[in-house]
């Protein structure tokens, strides 16, 4: 691509032309560079020429090139595709010619700088068809409507003044080039059955469009457009695309795709509203894309809400409000909220942690604080921004039911598996002012915290992407009412069946669609009643699927509104009307509901109260006699009050009689006490003594959740008893129960690997919770209790967990050891010096070879027929021999520099896996992007960056080396690298059989019973 030269808009002089013309070629048969009048970046242009033939010649050689890409169609036959303008390509096209009228069409794409097409068809006997001013040209969107103009002639081939002539000379063009590839990566495609997708009875799936990665990228978002069209976006820079799906039931119908002529890409959420396409773009925010000249084409893009970078935890969905007056838009926990005019809940967000947290052991989300992921509302022009909800990790999408109730599917932190702070992926009911308690590292709030809300249903491990209701689908009734949520990691679409539960909902889930690999990321219900689904992401092979019902059940539209609970929801909404504003009637209206047993109504009432000045309700809060209302009121006062409110809050809570309260109220009271201390500081000695006298006798209780809250509070209050009593709980914990989502996960074959191993050998999660709190205990230790405490970590490390599990254990142990004297350190050296990381296999042997410098094309050609009957043990050995395990965790063991590879087979095809191995810089997840860091002493390091409070560690290419440590204040430069930390050529020592075994091992997730290891007749 040439970016510095200037296009010539007129034909150059005849004299110059004559100097460059090959001998024997008439001037009117000399090809010219042509395009439309003005070349801009990312244009898609259609150039057309019609010509007549008396008879079809015996041969007809087409020679051409295009800056930057072209697809050539002759009489409807796709005869060539080319994407390297510096190389001329040729092809015999006589089979596509016919006597009479012929039409050649070139669909060209420019990626920036000048643009042009040069083409000639040699018909024999001195006859030619050449690119010149007789061609017609139009932007793809105008061409679709037949709005062509005469092509702009830039100049004759070889002219000294043209930007291409240094590479494309007359001689080179006359000599012809390499064979033009006949495949069309962007042309219309017919629907094909997708039989590998598991579906409920009566449903069928079709592959509508296989996305050409090199020109249209890897799609990660999908939206309905006007009529029966759809919009899709590449995750990278390839652009936005309009899709016209093949009509259902028409065997000859095709799906067509065209790029929008706007410089917008990377949208992870889109919607069509207010006669505009809204796109929420990673690192940029919300764009509004409109047709400004009334020709039916989207031609203008405006960034109406700038949002900072957040990578895959950044800007996501956007959708219209129920009343049609605004938009909702969202972002994950790595993107700060935009400047906003209001917030439904008071915006004095805080971490609200009683004891200091530990950040993730591998550095992820270090320094990220409340509000975490958020959901906001704005007007159609991006003004009047209001924060609606917060406390998510990485909610990718939102969906709204017929009543305007909003739901999202929030991400887990899979590295936390095995720890008490692990939160599975979960569906949340997004109510006004809601808070769902995400905090980084060990700080995640338990689901029972009174100042947060619980999920509708916990799904389990996964990677949430799209969310949609089945409203409008031509599906059986229960699926019309279902909320569908997509899991990218495990290639599953779940149907979540909601049932009213007071002012909110409870739910059950079922597998709706599943395949492997099938990295589903977004879905919509089309105008034809089918579900359209995109797969892709991180540069992987992308595709568009359609799921429709072809069974015998009725698919007539049904009532999708909830059949009960209307009064409770109406009460909640009436309270929510007071959110985000001061209203003299709010306290009186809300206060009776502070005692509601319905958690969502009680939450809405408290937020209504918190929005009013504290002086207008402080006395009423402290005088509240109803226990549940008193707890809610003290939470409100702790959040919105002043330091002088600390003693009155705690004193009021101490008057509650725990023996007469149910567990939820007891937990709420303990949370309110801890929240008051977290917000307003340590108590006076007198108040400390009163709290200890009240709480110490209650440990242990009959509730695991209550025990953990009591241990936290008693450690904070420097209890002399907490160590002895908490160690008794660790010692007598017994078998760890499965988490609530565990039974469903055990029955899900798609999980496999570390998750299945963990559920079969549950870590002592309750004990880890107590140990985390006890690391800050100063009083009550004896030598025996110290030894038992540090010995617990070795026992816990024998169990499997997530990628950060062992690191967290080491960090807790290290933090606890900071309080030891030198003599104590010597006494426990045998327990403090041992590694808690899982050991890697011994006796690893190197590849036998002979190897080669593998290319993706060679590897794909060979492996396409070799991934059956492979050798699991050989693949495992090669994984370690190639040093993969030094950086990557797999099947529960390995390094922490790169991503966990256990589930790559669920998300990526063999071709995608080969791309990642052989071209590691082609697509890099932002979680593992390398950075170049320099400091004031002139030191420079490049690698994976892990941030601490006062320092930054950079892990360079040698996984066994110590990181380079920088003081944060000394850093003078820091930038992201486009080169992967993973070196190329790691598999070049392997022969074809060994490479096949390694790839089979990777896509198997480590399962020796996987299909790739099964022997078949004729296999080796």
Give the gist of this structure.
It is built from 28 helices and 48 strands. The protein has 1020 residues and is α+β, with helices and mostly antiparallel strands. The chain has a six-stranded antiparallel sheet.
Task: Give a description of the structure.
- Helix 19 runs antiparallel to helix 20.
- The strands form 11 sheets. This protein has a 6-stranded antiparallel β-sheet with strand order 5-4-7-2-10-11. Strands 25, 26, 27, 28, 29 and 33 form a 6-stranded mixed β-sheet that branches.
- Mean pLDDT is 89; it is low at 1-25.
- It is of the alpha+beta class.
- The protein has 28 helices and 48 strands.
- It is globular, with a radius of gyration of 32 Å.
- Helix content is 24%, strand content 26%.
- Strand 45 (940-947) and strand 46 (951-955) form a beta hairpin.
- The longest helix is centred in the middle third of the chain and has 18 residues, at 663-680.
Strand content: 25-35%
Number of DSSP E strands: 48
Quaternary organization: single chain
- Largest sheet at a glance? 6 strands, antiparallel
- Order of strands side by side in the largest beta sheet? 5-4-7-2-10-11
Globular, elongated, flat, extended or rod-shaped: what is the shape? globular
Q: End-to-end span in angstroms?
A: 47 Å
Radius of gyration: 32 Å
């Amino acid at each position: 691509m040439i970016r510095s030269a200037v296009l010539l808009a007129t034909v150059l002089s005849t004299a110059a032309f004559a100097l460059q013309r090959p001998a024997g070629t008439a001037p009117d048969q000399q090809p010219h560079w042509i395009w439309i009048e003005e070349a801009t970046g990312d244009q898609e242009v259609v150039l057309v020429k019609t010509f007549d033939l008396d008879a079809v010649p015996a041969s007809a050689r087409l020679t051409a090139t295009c800056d930057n890409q072209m697809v050539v169609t002759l009489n409807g036959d796709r005869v060539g595709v080319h994407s390297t303008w510096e190389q001329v390509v040729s092809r015999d096209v006589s089979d596509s010619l016919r006597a009479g009228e012929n039409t050649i069409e070139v669909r060209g794409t420019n990626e920036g700088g000048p643009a042009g097409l040069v083409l000639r068809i040699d018909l024999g006997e001195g006859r030619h068809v050449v690119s010149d001013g007789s061609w017609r040209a139009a932007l793809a969107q105008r061409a679709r409507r037949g709005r062509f103009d005469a092509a702009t002639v830039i100049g004759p081939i070889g002219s000294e003044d043209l930007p291409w002539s240094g590479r494309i000379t007359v001689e080179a063009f006359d000599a012809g080039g390499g064979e033009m590839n006949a495949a069309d990566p962007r042309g219309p495609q017919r629907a094909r059955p997708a039989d590998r997708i598991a579906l409920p009875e009566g449903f069928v799936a079709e592959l509508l469009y296989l996305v050409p990665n090199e020109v249209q990228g890897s799609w990660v978002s999908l939206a309905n457009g006007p009529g029966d069209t759809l919009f899709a976006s590449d995750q990278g820079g390839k652009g936005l695309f309009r899709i016209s799906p093949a009509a259902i039931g028409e065997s000859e119908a095709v799906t067509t795709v065209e790029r929008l002529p706007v410089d917008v890409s990377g949208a992870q959420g889109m919607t069509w509203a207010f006669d505009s396409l809204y796109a929420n773009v990673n690192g940029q925010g919300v764009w509004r894309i409109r047709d400004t000249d009334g020709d039916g084409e989207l031609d203008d893009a405006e960034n109406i809400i700038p949002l900072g970078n957040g990578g895959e935890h950044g800007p996501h969905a956007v959708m219209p409000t129920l009343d049609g007056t605004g938009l909702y838009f969202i972002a994950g926990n790595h993107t700060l909220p935009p400047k906003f005019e209001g917030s439904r809940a008071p915006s004095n967000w805080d971490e609200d942690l009683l004891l200091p947290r530990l950040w993730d052991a591998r550095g992820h989300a270090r320094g990220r604080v409340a509000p975490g992921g958020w959901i906001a509302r704005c007007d159609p022009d991006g003004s009047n921004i209001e924060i609606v909800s917060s406390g998510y990790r990485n909610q990718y999408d939102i969906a709204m039911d017929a009543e305007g109730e909003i739901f999202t599917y929030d991400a887990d932190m899979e590295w936390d598996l095995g720890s008490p702070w692990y939160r599975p992926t979960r569906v949340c009911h997004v109510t006004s002012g809601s808070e769902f308690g995400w905090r980084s590292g060990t700080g995640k709030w338990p689901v029972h915290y009174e100042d947060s809300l619980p999920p509708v249903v916990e799904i389990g491990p996964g990677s949430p992407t799209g969310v949609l209701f089945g409203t409008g689908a031509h599906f059986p009734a229960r699926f019309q009412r279902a909320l569908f949520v997509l899991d990218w990691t495990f290639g599953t679409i779940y149907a979540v069946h909601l049932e009213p539960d007071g002012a909110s909902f409870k739910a059950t889930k079922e597998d709706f669609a599943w395949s492997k690999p099938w990295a589903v990321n977004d879905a919509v219900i089309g105008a034809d009643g089918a579900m359209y689904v995109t797969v892709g992401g991180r540069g992987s092979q992308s595709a568009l699927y359609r799921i429709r019902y072809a069974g015998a059940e009725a698919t007539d539209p049904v009532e999708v509104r909830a059949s009960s609970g209307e009064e409770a929801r109406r009460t909640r909404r009436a309270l929510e009307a007071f959110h985000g504003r001061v209203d003299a009637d709010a306290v009186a209206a809300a206060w009776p509901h502070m005692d509601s047993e319905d958690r969502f109504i009680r939450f809405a009432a408290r937020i209504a109260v918190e929005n009013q000045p504290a002086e207008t309700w402080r006395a009423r809060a402290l005088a509240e006699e109803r226990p549940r209302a008193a707890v809610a009121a003290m939470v409100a006062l702790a959040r919105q009050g002043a330091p002088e409110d600390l003693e009155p809050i705690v004193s009021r809570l101490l008057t509650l009689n725990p023996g007469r309260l149910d567990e939820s109220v007891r937990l709420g009271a303990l949370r309110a006490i801890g929240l008051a201390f977290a917000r307003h500081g340590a108590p006076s000695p007198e108040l400390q003594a009163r709290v200890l006298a009240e709480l110490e006798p209650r440990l242990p209780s009959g509730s695991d959740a209550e025990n953990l809250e009591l241990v936290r509070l008693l450690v904070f209050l420097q209890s002399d008893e907490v160590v002895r009593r908490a160690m008794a709980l660790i010692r007598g914990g017994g078998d760890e129960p499965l988490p609530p989502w565990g039974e469903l996960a055990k029955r899900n074959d798609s999980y496999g690997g570390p998750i299945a191993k963990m559920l079969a050998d549950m870590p002592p999660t309750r004990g880890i919770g107590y140990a985390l709190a006890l690391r800050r205990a100063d009083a009550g230790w004896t030598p025996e209790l110290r030894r038992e405490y540090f010995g617990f970590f070795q026992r816990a490390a024998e169990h499997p967990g997530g990628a950060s599990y062992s690191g967290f254990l080491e960090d807790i142990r290290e933090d606890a050891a900071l309080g030891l004297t030198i003599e104590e350190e010597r006494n426990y050296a045998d327990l403090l010096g041992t590694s808690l990381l899982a050991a890697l296999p011994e006796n690893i042997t190197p590849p036998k070879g002979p190897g080669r410098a593998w290319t993706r094309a060679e590897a794909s050609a060979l492996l396409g027929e070799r991934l059956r009957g492979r050798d699991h043990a050989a693949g495992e050995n090669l994984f370690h021999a190639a040093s993969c395990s030094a950086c990557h965790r797999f099947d529960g063991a390995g390094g922490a520099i790169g991503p966990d590879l256990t589930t790559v087979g669920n998300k990526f095809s063999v071709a995608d896996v080969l791309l990642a191995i052989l071209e590691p810089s082609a697509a890099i997840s932002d979680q593992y992007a390398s950075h170049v860091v320099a400091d004031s002493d002139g030191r420079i390091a490049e690698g994976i960056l892990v941030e601490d409070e006062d320092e930054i560690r950079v892990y360079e290419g040698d996984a066994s080396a110590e990181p380079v440590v920088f003081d944060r204040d000394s850093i003078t430069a820091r930038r992201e690298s486009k080169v992967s930390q993973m070196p190329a050529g790691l598999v070049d020592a392997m022969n074809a059989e060994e490479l096949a075994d390694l790839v089979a091992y990777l896509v198997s997730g480590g399962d020796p019973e996987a299909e790739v290891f099964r022997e078949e007749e004729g296999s080796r």
